[in-house]
Amino acid sequence: MPKRIMANRDFEHIVDTSDEWIIQRTGIRQRHIAGDDETTASLGEEAARNAIASAGLEPNDIDLIVLATSTPDNTFPATAVDIQNRLGIRHGAAFDMQAVCSGFIYALTTADLYIRGGMAQRALVIGAETFSRLLDWEDRTTCVLFGDGAGAVVVEASEGAGLTSDTGIIAAKLRSDGCHKSKLYVDGGPSTTKTVGHLRMQGREVFRHAVGMITDVIEDSFSVAGISAEDIDWFVPHQANRRIIEASAKKLGIADEKVVVTVDRHGNTSAASVPLALSVAVADGRIKKGDMVLLEAMGGGFTWGAILVRW
Ligand code: ACO
Predict the structure, then answer these.
(1) CATH number at residue 188
(2) With contact defined as beta carbons under 8 Å apart, do 130 and 71 qualify?
(3) Stated pTM of the model
């Protein structure tokens, strides 16, 4: 996480809002905001180093880097290649993946398929964002919602029996539907305005679609794996809004105590939110080896998806 923490009260001097409104509508109490010396690449590098160390590996053991981000350091080259260089890795491949808040789910699914296809042995999957740089700081309907940060995991090839008791990714489902573009987008880009642009969102419209889309794709992943909500030990959803998380868990029949919530501390960190929430629940001992973990996200596009992982 970036060093600087911004509490809800800090917004009361910038836009017409209040700590009470933000907590009640979103569950967010604070978020981290990148300083001038912190970028998507620097935050991603730190998360990558932590993930590689906790896997008991060295950077050179990695032969694939997939970075999920919508806030790259440069339009090109891919920030993943920058992180690869920062880690001192000169072999393998690195690329960015852009699916906004679903980016980590897309990136982890992609890395899994590279490994299953024999294209990689050990993949580093990172979600890293500096959404604060895309925000319109005069728009109270969006600027209070997002934060910056990065999280990462390492996945490696291993033989399984093709059962849900195998370790690793058991099932993944991805969806997208571009007809929803205008509900959540950035109003700039190299090919259109030649600028970076600002995030624009019809919050109520996003909310209206979110719970149905999230729970549908999760049910699809259950069908692929042949399991049900009772088999889930931990639900690690995208951290956009506490009300969306709670409504999704309730609709699926997942008990509150199995839901990992970090939106209060992190805000919505887009592609970084799922790996950040994972890292919190692994570090505090909740997620243990052998647990069935359900990951999910939905974001701009719209894109959405779910992954079942035997930890
Ligand atoms: N402080 C005070 N009042 C505010 C603020 C604010 N920060 N923002 C909006 N309001 C006002 C609005 O102007 C509106 O006032 P009005 O009635 O006078 O017009 C009133 O609050 C209610 O606005 P709504 O938009 O209806 O509020 P809602 O209960 O829907 O909450 C929110 C807004 C939090 C954005 C909600 O719609 C939401 O969470 N939507 C989903 C957004 C989301 O999760 N996006 C990310 C998912 S995808 C991704 O992660 C990229």
Answers:
(1) 3.40.47.10
(2) yes
(3) 0.97
Residue 145 φ then ψ, to 5°:
-90, -25
Among 101, 143, 180, 198, the active-site one is 101
Are 151 and 275 part of one and the same domain?
Answer: no
Going from the Cα of 178 to the center of ligand 1, the distance in angstroms, rounded, reads: 22
- Do 250 and 123 reside in the same domain of the chain? no
Cα of 169 from ligand 1 centre, angstroms? 35
Instruction: Dump pLDDT digits (tens) for 255-296.
Output: 999 999 999 999 999 999 999 999 999 999 999 999 999 999
74 is catalytic: no
Side-chain-facing half-sphere of 51: CA atoms under 13 Å: 27
Domain that holds residue 139: 4-156
- Considering the domain architecture, whether residues 175 and 127 belong to the same structural domain is answered as no
pLDDT band, very low/low/confident/very high, at 51 (cuts 50, 70, 90): very high
Query: Rounded to whole angstroms, what are the CA distances from 78 to 40, 75, 182, 230, 301?
Result: 11, 7, 26, 40, 20
Same domain (yes/no): 148, 49: yes
Q: Which residues line ligand 1 (CB under 6 A)?
A: 17, 21-22, 25-26, 100-101, 140-141, 144, 184, 201, 203-204, 206-207, 240-241, 244, 268, 270, 298-300
Using one digit for the tens of pLDDT, what is the confidence trace for 71-109?
999 999 999 999 999 999 999 999 999 999 999 999 999
